[in-house]
Amino acid sequence: MSTPAFSGGGGLFTGFTQLCKGLAVVLVGGHIVVQLLPLAVTYLALIPARTIPFAWNLLTAGYIEQTTYGAAISIFALLFIGKLLEPIWGSKEFVKFILVVNFLTYVCVFITAIAFYYATRLEIYLYMPISGFHGVLSGFLVGIKQIIPDQELSVFGIAKIKAKWLPSIMILLSVTASFFLADSAAYLPMIIFGTYMSWIYLRYLQRRSETNFRGDPSDEFAFATFFPEFLRPVVNPISTIFHRMFCGRSDISNEGNGYDLGGIPLPGSDSIEASRRRERGARALEERLATERLVGATTVDGQHIDASEEV
């Protein structure tokens, strides 16, 4: 199924949810605060050397954009991706996803900065103020990969890519850009850890309302699917090791949730639920696009046309 998703239309700037608008206000407010009171960065951004006792930095850093272009990109992406994900997940789960992914991302960034300092003895890793919504935005792309993996999205009307490759392309572009940008340490760790932490959450922790089970064990959402086909034989053994290290207990706990003791899905429990999720995601996207096209069709050459007459 192909559709000109996110490529334009009369309703492109409509349909934003109230929750996403509220979160956008939070991002705008955080940006204004650090612009008017630069000292606030010391207390709100993540500065690894000061995280103890300022542990709240692990929560607040994700909502503080230090640059205007960073704030603009984050707000734009939040509004447009949020109006796709929130109706499917529900407002409560959408907020939970943001809070969990943001927190876990900055915990990983904190640990990485400390490790880099001990490896290099460069104090920049301890005192660089790190903040931004990049980790959650990367996580949103993983959510799109899960819901509509085979949906073709138009990129500026030039090319089409499948949604399942969005997280991988984002990481590839970010890593490539890091070789040419001096401040790559200010955004690259958040993008990488945001992608991985969101996959961990959606794969093992997110409670599915339709079954009341946790996670998404489908083969189409395995860690290896983030990589091209020729790399998967190398990635699969590595991902299996980490799966057993960090998520082995979840396999046992899933015995009564459609899985046997080895963590293998019982017949039908995997593919059916994954298929239902993708169908709901594709249906929600199609309905939203149809609504936007209808809104756009109500105005032709500046003259309002009754939508009911159009139908």
Structural summary, described in words:
The chain is mainly alpha-helical and 311 residues long. The chain has a single domain, classed as Rhomboid-like fold (Up-down Bundle). 59% of the residues lie in helices and 5% in strands. Strands 1-2-3 form a 3-stranded mixed β-sheet. The chain is globular. It starts with a strand and ends with a helix. The relative contact order is 0.12. The N terminus and C terminus are likely disordered.
Write the layout of secondary structure elements.
Blueprint: E1 2-5, H1 18-36, H2 40-44, H3 57-60, H4 68-89, H5 91-120, H6 124-127, H7 134-147, E2 152-155, E3 159-162, H8 166-178, H9 188-205, H10 232-253, H11 271-297, E4 299-300, E5 303-304, H12 307-310
Parallel strand pairs: 1-2
Antiparallel strand pairs: 2-3, 4-5
Helix pairs in contact: 1-4, 4-5, 4-7, 4-11, 5-9, 7-9, 8-9
